[in-house]
TrEMBL record:
Keywords: Guanine-nucleotide releasing factor, Repeat. This is RCC1-like domain-containing protein. InterPro entries: Ran_GTPase-activating (IPR051553), RCC1-like_dom (IPR058923), RCC1/BLIP-II (IPR009091), Reg_chr_condens (IPR000408). RCC repeats lie at residues 80-140, 141-194, 195-246, 247-298, 299-351. Residues 113-347 form the RCC1-like domain. Pfam families: WD40_RLD. It comes from the Eukaryota.
Amino acid sequence: MLSWGEDYQQGFRLKKGSAVPPVAGGVRSLQLSFHVADLCVGLRVLAFIKDSGEASIIRVSESAAGTREKRKQKFVECEERLAAVGCTDDGVTLLSDTGVIFCVDSLHPPFTPRSLESLRGITVTQVACGSQHTVVLSKDGQVYTWGQNSRGQLGLGKEGCSSISSPQCVRSLSGMPLVQVSAGGEHSFALSVSGSVFGWGRNDCGQLGLGDTTDRETPTLVHYLNMKKTVFAACGKDHTAVLTMDGTVFTFGSGHYGQLGHNSFRNELCPRLVAELWGAKVTKISCGRYHTLVLTDHMKVYSFGCNQHGQLGPREETHPCVPLPVQLPQEGPIIQNIFAGGDSSFATCRPEQDVSEVPVESLVDRWISEWDSKLQTKVKQEIDQRFSSASLMNRSFLNQSKHFQTSSTYSGLDLSLCKSGFNKLLRNEAIQLEVEKAVMKMLPSLHEKPAGVEGLRVFLILNELLYAIQRLRHGSLWEGPQTGRGFHGVEIAMKVAAAVQSLSTEHLQITANWWTLSMMEDKSRHVNVWRTALSEVLGIEAFPHSSSKDILQILQNMYNVNKGKMKIPETTFCLEFSPIFIEQEVTRWRWQSKSMAVDNPPLILCSFAFVMDFKSKQLVFQCNSDLTVVIKATPLAAPLCKLDKTICCSFFEFKKD
């Protein structure tokens, strides 16, 4: 975990022998033996939840000299697994993953949590704390508050007392479909599922965003945020920040320390867009007492506001009022979450970004550039992870703006991304072999009855992979050393064809629909994949001809769809077969037509004559004629002169063309 601002490192129990030097200016890397799932900072207390569901508290006391001293973290003995935490100035409120609220008096250890009788039977999903009050949201959308109410921060109206120790329901919000609550110094917020924002409590700096400085004792709709699609609110001591669905940030309230990010130190009575963040999609926001943090989709952290304790990271200005990036380590951990509290800032990390979450186009460029370096082993592992999983392959090439429209007539894939990605990646034959090995591991996992149509996308992706393999191999476009090893591309084609043919009739029809749409865009590319695969399989003696039937069936399905809609010429499906193959086919056919047992019946003639080109069909007639002459000249052989009707019809139809 990274931290900057007021230093809490002496309170955390670090790994033995781990020093904590600043790694980037004032940023410290805390080498913890656990991952922090949630964290909150009050005036004199810090509490956090481990990913194991355990909670710990760090108390802060003031020495005689006026310095703040952090005590070692103390474990909270709780009977339930904990999921979230909130801190007032001195108190801690814990939320279990079963929805039970526990309160802890951090002034008097041992820290024994106590449940609240008035919330018994109520499942709580969120907790937020101001300086001296607490707000929680229940699973059924009700808001409960308790604590100090000197400025109306409990939202209970005029009948509310100045202080309430037992949770009370904020009835004016009943019936609203609420999804989030937030609390600051002496003000509170609630958000609805459709983006409506309600604020109440102290408003002397405009922290409620209502256009005035009048306190509110009951929840009041923030009209200025209507239609902004607000999805999250964060509160500081006397300022507020909200995040919208499209990643923009609005701030309002006190700007005394520049915590609003508007390049000024003025208060804002109405929500104002943080223009300096325009163009960066923000995914998370967090507010400390007098500073604000935001995290973007590129994992950059920006900060603005008070920097008296270094809570913004290293800065030349004392109180910067515009968002600037925090100078974090250039390489290393990837930011997962941010927490601003009091005069401190924290960022939880994962050691490396999960490759499954990285856009495939970014991965391809990195894999290529790092292949010939010391990172090759890591690249191999990432390639294996990406392509040995049907699920990861499935979501790697989505059309990000349309994939939610996936249906039996639309795959949701960006096939141009497939094409460009595979063309770049497979130019290095060594990388291609790694991809092929991973895909071969994945193919047995393909289910014959996927739960939904999205599970069928992988077949279109594999189609593009096969096309790239064939194009690069036949065009000799490989870069770097070539090994010439194996026939993985052919084996993949055979296994994919077998997987396709194991699908139900309904799923086969869906893949046929998707192929039809892709054929409209890419013409004959998908047909060429399987026509080439058939040619390669028939040309390799190691593979029995019977193993080609799955490939022929795919071509048959495409041919049938195409025949009804005539998107591409029928000659696209045709191959020129060798005289030896034709002779074997005719011989097998004649033995079969004589009702004699045939271990290896004809592959093409009886069922798939559409794949023969004109020259091949001529050879069939010539071979049959030659065999007839031979048979007639043999006294013991019965004449076999009648040519199969399917062959004749197919031949004459082709001749007309």
